[in-house]
Amino acid sequence: MAFFSHQVCRGFSSSAVRNVVIKHVTIIGGGQMGAGIAQVAASTGHSVTLVDTNEDILKKAVKGIEGNLKRVVKKKFADKPEAGEEFIQKALQNVSTSTDAGSVVRDSDLVLEAIVENLKIKQDLFGGLDKLAPAHTIFASNTSSLPITDIASSTNRLDRFGGLHFFNPVPVMKLVEVIATSATSQETFDSLLNFSKKLGKTSVSCKDTPGFIVNRLLLPYIMEVIRMYERGDGSKEDIDIAMKLGCGYPMGPFELADYVGLDTVKFIMDGWSAANPDNPVFAQSELLTKLVAEGKLGKKTGEGFYKYK
Ligand SMILES: CCCCCCCC(=O)CC(=O)SCCNC(=O)CCNC(=O)[C@H](O)C(C)(C)COP(=O)(O)OP(=O)(O)OC[C@H]1O[C@@H](n2cnc3c(N)ncnc32)[C@H](O)[C@@H]1OP(=O)(O)O
Ligand SMILES: NC(=O)C1=CN([C@@H]2O[C@H](COP(=O)(O)OP(=O)(O)OC[C@H]3O[C@@H](n4cnc5c(N)ncnc54)[C@H](O)[C@@H]3O)[C@@H](O)[C@H]2O)C=CC1
């Protein structure tokens, strides 16, 4: 991965189809992000198939969606509980699940991937689905840090491949970064922008540069914070309070890293430090490595920098 090799022009290769109106969405990965995206897509009238490796994960994902829909409805339909219940039921009816991506992509306008942050695994997934999905189907990745170009290279639909980077928690965070590679067609890019709009999100256009806009700035901040703590320059608690009250951030950096998942932070750092071994900004942290090795991945496992049990 070459840092700072900006791709300044987007290709306008003719796509197999014109603008795709996205109605049927397959979301692969029913973790924090996939479930959140499924919730918002289903709430905005899309039919969604959520795919993961086993039924238990999918059951947990759907239960989580139901719980979070209740939170949404509490505010949105504060004085109309019946309308709120109807909203929840409609959204849930729009969600189905599967453990077999290959069998469901045939009906999809968009296949959006939110699985583990690993290039090879993402490439294998898309490479296989490319042979099964219809020609018009757009593929997109929610990757935090991997080049979309590299993920797309496992397919023969480079013009119908882009990035859709959502933020956690998806039902609350308003932004989507829409990423075009040099091969993404204008039609595909427009379809992804329109889809983001239909989800009620504000989108920004990004080039396929490492970390796009937000994570290119967020990761160095988080790593600098961890190094500050490792040097003993401040306690986790004080650093978190300082950034919340001093900068008005909703979460302190340690709370945020735990919320995102320390495995994801480490996956990103591994890739970026390997590509930039001499850049101190991307230097590894012993503490982060130790926590991940111990399975302390943050909120999702009950412990990370903080304990949640
Ligand atoms: C980190 C290193 C690098 C990362 C690289 C990988 C990551 C990425 O690729 C990109 C990312 O996503 S970066 C992370 C971006 N997210 C943030 O920065 C979140 C910051 N935190 C917050 O906004 C609030 O603490 C938050 C909204 C989370 C919670 O707010 P509060 O503390 O005020 O708690 P609540 O009162 O429970 O919630 C506020 C309102 O939001 C509703 N809500 C929360 N979670 C929800 C969910 N999952 N679904 C639906 N609604 C939800 C909650 O109901 C409440 O609503 P109101 O009562 O109406 O205000
Ligand atoms: N956690 C965050 O705040 C954000 C994460 N992302 C990105 O979204 C992606 C997912 O992240 P999370 O939802 O946090 O991870 P997660 O660990 O919560 O969920 C990943 C899910 O993918 C499933 N999975 C793994 N390999 C699979 C395969 N081959 N087929 C089907 N399912 C598979 C896992 O069983 C798991 O349920 C990553 O690429 C991450 O970088 C993007 C924005 C924010």
UniProtKB/TrEMBL annotation:
Homodimer. Interacts with GLUD1; this interaction inhibits the activation of glutamate dehydrogenase 1 (GLUD1). It holds the Pfam family 3HCDH_N. Keywords: Acetylation, Differentiation, Fatty acid metabolism, Hydroxylation, Lipid metabolism, Mitochondrion, NAD, Oxidoreductase, Spermatogenesis, Transit peptide. Its main location: mitochondrion. Residues 211-308 form the 3-hydroxyacyl-CoA dehydrogenase C-terminal domain. One of its GO terms (biological process) is cell differentiation. It comes from the Eukaryota. The record marks 165 as: Important for catalytic activity. It catalyses: a (3S)-3-hydroxyacyl-CoA + NAD(+) = a 3-oxoacyl-CoA + NADH + H(+); (3S)-3-hydroxybutanoyl-CoA + NAD(+) = acetoacetyl-CoA + NADH + H(+); (3S)-hydroxyhexadecanoyl-CoA + NAD(+) = 3-oxohexadecanoyl-CoA + NADH + H(+); (3S)-hydroxydecanoyl-CoA + NAD(+) = 3-oxodecanoyl-CoA + NADH + H(+). PANTHER family: HYDROXYACYL-COENZYME A DEHYDROGENASE, MITOCHONDRIAL, PTHR43561. Its EC number is 1.1.1.35. GO terms for molecular function: (3S)-3-hydroxyacyl-CoA dehydrogenase (NAD+) activity; NAD+ binding. Belongs to the 3-hydroxyacyl-CoA dehydrogenase family. This is Hydroxyacyl-coenzyme A dehydrogenase, mitochondrial. PROSITE patterns: 3HCDH. InterPro entries: 3-OHacyl-CoA_DH, 3-OHacyl-CoA_DH_CS, 3-OHacyl-CoA_DH_NAD-bd, 3HC_DH_C, 6-PGluconate_DH-like_C_sf, 6PGD_dom2, Mito_3-hydroxyacyl-CoA_DH, NAD(P)-bd_dom_sf. Mitochondrial fatty acid beta-oxidation enzyme that catalyzes the third step of the beta-oxidation cycle for medium and short-chain 3-hydroxy fatty acyl-CoAs (C4 to C10). Plays a role in the control of insulin secretion by inhibiting the activation of glutamate dehydrogenase 1 (GLUD1), an enzyme that has an important role in regulating amino acid-induced insulin secretion. Plays a role in the maintenance of normal spermatogenesis through the reduction of fatty acid accumulation in the testes. It is an enzyme of class 1 (oxidoreductase). It is found in: Mitochondrion matrix. Residues 24-209 form the 3-hydroxyacyl-CoA dehydrogenase NAD binding domain. Pathway: Lipid metabolism; fatty acid beta-oxidation. It comes from Perca flavescens (American yellow perch).
